[in-house]
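Bench notes, afternoon.
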Amino acid sequence: MGLSAHHQLLEPEHAKIKFIGMKEGGVEKLKGKKIVNIYHDSAYGKETIPVLDAQAAKYGFQSRIFRSRTRATSSKRSGCRSARSSRLVILRGWA
């Protein structure tokens, strides 16, 4: 039996947190850290925000969410500039 489309969409988000955890010495080391998620400002980009929030609750890290807009809709202050202070960043956009 294959994976549902919803599960296939969210599995990479789990893998990203596991990968970051591995680089930090284990997912238990994520507790208290800030992980920034920069997403494309569209329905597609917003789909995984609840997944990241659930993982933040599970592993004890702080999830900081910033949207990235196209040049046509961007404001003077973007989430990308606001996220510079974090060492751990996930970028979710178009491939």
